């Protein structure tokens, strides 16, 4: 059994297509098919179900997938180690980033990094879901939140503070809540992606942290939608400060409790514990960290 056939199988498991793998390796579909057939013969079991429309892994294929992914990752690490001796970095990075930071700064920062290193390509997915790095083949993930998985290594960039805000028009029509407890009398815009619950808003006092249960007519799993609703005077939103920083600066939104909001989440670069980050990953992490720090006022 050849390692490159396992790597080819890992690519198929990732991409879900013979034609995409063939194109990525500059070979024909028939070569891909023959090599997988040879691998199946050597293992004595079918690894893939193939139809004209869909390609799925068999139970045996699922069992082999992680080992094949490890072979692929180890091979890339060996290549990265050698390429690290030269000034130029090259290759491909697959990463996932949160939508707000992606729009605010990461899209430009990562595109700039690619411009600085012409031999490098990056596939950046904007997704608030905490992806499975190893199973889904991600090299790097930027996340905002609490990290509990001990199989991952995280580098902390900064903390993201949240705000409770609304428009001046809403305040004129409905009045300004004087304390968090007054929110029960207002239409609150609910962020259904909250891990602690869309209606449970966290605050601080001299006695410590506590939550207020709120209610409202509009909820969304997209914070940008809540920002637009708040700007239109539809209610009060509890969102990351970075999302509405410029709105707060220009007065189109008002921070209602600047010293009382308790939600603070760390922003991290995350990669698998079992994998020593390559030079290109280390450089990208540092590039991203500097961009976050240059915009720390937003957070």
Automatic annotation (TrEMBL):
Q: Which residues form the HTH lysR-type domain?
A: 1-58
Q: Does the keyword Transcription regulation apply?
A: yes
Residue ranges of coiled coil:
none
Q: Output the GO biological process annotations, alphabetical, semicolon-separated.
A: DNA-templated transcription
Q: Which InterPro entries match?
A: LysR-type_TF_proteobact-type (IPR058163), LysR_HTH_N (IPR000847), LysR_subst-bd (IPR005119), WH-like_DNA-bd_sf (IPR036388), WH_DNA-bd_sf (IPR036390)
Q: Does the keyword Transcription regulation apply?
A: yes
The UniProt transmembrane annotation reads none
PROSITE patterns, alphabetized: HTH_LYSR
Keywords of the record, alphabetical order, are: DNA-binding, Transcription, Transcription regulation
**CDD domains per record:** PBP2_CrgA_like (cd08422)
Q: Which domain of life is it from?
A: Bacteria
GO MF annotation, one: sequence-specific DNA binding
Task: Give the family this protein belongs to, as stated in its UniProt record.
Answer: Belongs to the LysR transcriptional regulatory family.
Q: Check the record and name the PANTHER family matching this protein.
A: HTH-TYPE TRANSCRIPTIONAL ACTIVATOR TTDR-RELATED, HTH-TYPE TRANSCRIPTIONAL REGULATOR
Per its record, how is this protein called by name?
LysR substrate binding domain protein
């Amino acid at each position: 059994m050849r390692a490159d056939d396992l790597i080819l199988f890992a690519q198929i498991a990732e991409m879900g297509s013979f034609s995409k793998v063939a194109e990525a390796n500059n070979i024909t579909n028939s070569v891909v098919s023959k090599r997988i057939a040879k691998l199946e013969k050597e293992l004595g079991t079918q690894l893939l179900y193939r139809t004209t429309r869909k390609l799925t892994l068999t139970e045996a294929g699922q069992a082999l997938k992680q080992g094949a992914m490890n072979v692929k990752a180890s091979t890339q690490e060996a290549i990265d180690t050698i390429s690290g001796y030269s000034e130029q970095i090259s290759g491909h990075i697959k990463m996932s980033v949160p939508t707000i930071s992606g729009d605010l700064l990461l899209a430009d920062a990562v595109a700039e990094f690619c411009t600085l290193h012409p031999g490098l390509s990056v596939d950046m997915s904007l997704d608030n879901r905490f992806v499975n790095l190893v199973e889904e083949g991600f090299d790097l993930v930027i996340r905002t939140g609490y990290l509990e998985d001990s199989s991952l290594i995280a580098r902390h960039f900064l903390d993201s503070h949240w705000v409770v805000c609304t428009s001046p028009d809403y305040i004129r029509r409905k009045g300004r809540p004087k304390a968090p407890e007054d929110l029960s009398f207002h239409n609150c815009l609910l962020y259904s992606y909250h891990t602690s619950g869309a209606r449970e808003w966290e605050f601080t006092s001299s006695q410590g942290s506590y939550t207020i249960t709120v209610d409202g007519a509009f909820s969304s799993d997209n914070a940008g939608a809540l920002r637009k609703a708040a700007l239109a005077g539809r209610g009060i939103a509890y969102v990351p400060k970075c999302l509405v920083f410029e709105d707060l600066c220009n007065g189109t939104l008002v921070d209602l409790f600047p010293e009382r909001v308790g939600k603070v989440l760390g922003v991290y670069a995350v990669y698998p514990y079992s994998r020593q980050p390559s030079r290109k990953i280390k450089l990208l992490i540092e590039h991203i960290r500097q961009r976050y720090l240059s915009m720390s006022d937003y957070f």
